[in-house]
Amino acid sequence: MFSQDKLPEEFRGDNADIGLRPYTSEDGNPTEQTRPIGSWNQLYLWANVWDSSTRREGQDASAALQWDGRTPSTLIASDSAANMEMMDNRYTYMRHPILLRFYSFVGIQYIKHGNKHPNRGGWIDLRISVIPVYVWWNPYNVDMKFQGPSGEPWGGYFGEHRFMPLLLSHNIKFAWNSLDDGLLANHSESMLVPYTKNVSYSNRQVADFGASFNTTAKLKGDGSPDKSGSSTLKAGEIVVFAQPVVSNIVHGNEVYQAKNQDRDFAPDRFPLKEGWDQSPGQVSSYAVNLTDGLRYELLEGSGYEQNGTAKASVIFAENTSQLTETPKNHVLAMKYSENSSNSNLGTFMATAGLMEPRKMNSKSSRNGTSTPEIDIFSKTMPTILNLNWGAWEKPLIDQVRFPADLWQDNEGPNEEAKKSGEYGTPSQDSTFIAYYGVSIKWGKPPVIGAYPEGKDYRAKTWQHSSPLFWGGQMPTASELGRLYSPYQFEVKNANSDFFPITISNILSNDGTRLSPFGGPGAEQVNKIVAAELPFQQPSSLAGFAGCRLTPGWYKTDSKAAIAKRFAYQSGVPGVGIGNAFADPMLPPDKVFSHNEIMGDASLGDFWDHGLMINDALWDSWFASSLASRPSSIGGTGKEELKTVLKEAFSTDASSNKAAGIANRRFVPDLQGKPAEAVVDELSRADEGYKQAGKYLTVAGGFNVNSTSQRAWEATLLGLKKRKLLYSRSGMPSVLSNSQTAFSRFGVASSDKSHVDDYGSVGVTQGIPDGEAMAWSDLRTLSDSQIKSLAQNMVKEVKKRGPFLNMSDFVNRRLQSGEMGVKGALQAAIDESSINSTFDELSDMVITPKGGYPNQDAAKGSVYTAAPGYLIQSDVLAVLGNILTTRDDTFTIRAYGELTSREGVVLSRAWCEAVVQRGINYVDPVNSPETPVKKINMKSGALEETELSAVNKAFGRKFNIVSFRWLSPEEV
Predict the structure, then answer these.
(1) CA torsion 828→619→541→578, rounded to 10°?
(2) pTM for the full model?
(3) Fewest CB within a 10 Å sphere: which of 135, 483, 687, 903?
(4) 192 and 160 Cβ atoms separated by less than 8 Å
(5) Is 205 helix (H, G, I), strand (E, B) or coil?
């Protein structure tokens, strides 16, 4: 079905995608009735992302992987309209980098005044800066180019006024040697706003209305940018982006030349570059003048201080009435607000997207309070990190004291000259005194100084709070919402009992490695591959586990509901199909719950999408592996569906029939028809997919209701020495493994497992091995682990079985207790200590105290379902197509005897027949593909079919596979 140029008509609609499982009246009462549970279109686009040879209806160039003949890469595909009125990704599987961190670092430095200040009597100019730093992550198993299909660069807003406007106060009076601590209560925007007029250029904080992310970037002597071009992040790579370095450090000289009077708006005037090289030129040239002519004797640690100490305070603006220069709709929290009449601030909102090349570097004036057109993002990232943490409750900087040690070598014979700072020189370094911003949740407990203090908002980051699913849309987050979000807001300042505030320390960056998921001292890795863009169509239902489970396309007037479509986390774990982790936001016995935690009613709908999609798929669909595919490993050629079908069903004795069927456990069965007729039937565009099951049989199917440990062991050990594909420098290569191996992806991200091969290093320390310095998704199980898994599977079958169908086996139970937390296979995996490397990190095993409807679902390792943490879809991706909940093959023995009238046995006979349920009905009036009942894909109703009375009573025919007579010795 997915090999067609477009989905069959019954899976498409004019105003909504057809859901994998439509809503029913029993599922609850959602606010947005038109959101389907998942989308056939999502699966279709994801499964075909590898195919760059076919342009499907409506697609742009970003829809498919870009192949260079050997290795694939992906462009950014961000299909949300900048005005947030419609986010239509019907023709593109959206993908873009994940924002791991955005921080604004507040720093101070000193500049030497040209002459002794006539009024203040000092030689020290005090500067303050707000420096933005992004950390972007390419979570995919292919390289990602930071550009769109037409070459549009990927960019983001920066500048503190765009996120949370800052207000500044200080105690320095405009008079000789004079301080007034009463002034610390008078906060204003100056000097931390880029809009202030009628002041010197260096007195205006640098900000930009969109900056692209480049490999390298610098500012030339005239203040104009010089950039190398859009960055490309390798598979799983994590990269820091910071402001460009100026070519000559003159403490603002070059930067303010770019601020031409009131022509403030020039997108991409300060393009960001890869890396933080700790160059003073990345900080000092961006500082603005807080005060000039300050005396050395007023600095803390100068040894004088009889007249007091110079201090400053910075707070977050609480409402728009405090903004004297910043236009209201230049603050993102207000720009995207549902209620324009609400003047309250305190919401951190970041956004990024594809930039309009024709609008970049085009200057525009601001007259009075009017706002120029600055929407230079043609397509914006679906994630709007909108975390209302009430940040004004605590100052960013509470009366920080300016230190004397930044004024160096201030020694000389004249005491008055020393007090004024005449002898000293400023340090080239900037001392950071605070920072604020958002980051994804750390695995470790929050450190002292994290905001809000004393709150542990950790969650199972990889399971139900994964940043891969952009679930940070919380206009008015409650405590419960903050627990559920994958992001946290941080405020740390110099008054905190914390390590020194430097960009390197905060990012835990030693030049190449970052700590994205653990905080300082935790994971030291430079790449984590956590999401799959498949190299070919999956050959198992669980092979679709990596497809993002978002609701399908729909129309609504609510901006928050539109955003929710992409920020969707309702019951969706980090990996979906084939898994059944319970969601803490849902009562254990429900598939729907409404939690009014997010302001907009439609954002409070929570569904157990994983459970419902498993229910929709596992007993009605299968992955036939009869599909178009690459003609060679890593090649750009393509074998069309009809070619694959010809290879699969050829009757030529010299041909390899198995070559046409990726799943080698599927055996072709022509049903007595000519091969050409079967190929023609299956290749029909709209109907062929319905016939696939008729011509395939399973060799060696396994009944999951088996209580034989030996049978489970044999099935699992049958995977031993299985050849896997893994990515070597981006090129799919064959991995030969002597053990039983599993991978999260169709092509593993590495040939090493950080859990198995580097266990002595520790799961949170990465692999000290060059390119392999990552969390790998590859897992190998020893024979003893397989034996333990088989033993625990039998326990689960006895505890939960018999399983009535496959979704019953895959899914959790809708009940409280351990069976309602996860599926049977996942429970067996966890009981087998296969994931003990993660679980033994006791400080990473949490019991959140938030008011979750399902507390049991919230308990466990924060790394649950992380790459390398074996989950049941990893196993089902290999075994899913041979598993069943019933037997179709039976051995029947019969006994007969002939006796005399007196009852004497004259002769005996024993026979044995092996019979197998076939696909044909007893009454041939119905074709084999006719179901007993069918689901209306649009309404969800279960409908009767035209099955004859005989077939309703007796079903399918049994065929005698073999028959033999038995001797008495065999009985």
Answers:
(1) -30
(2) 0.91
(3) 903
(4) yes
(5) coil
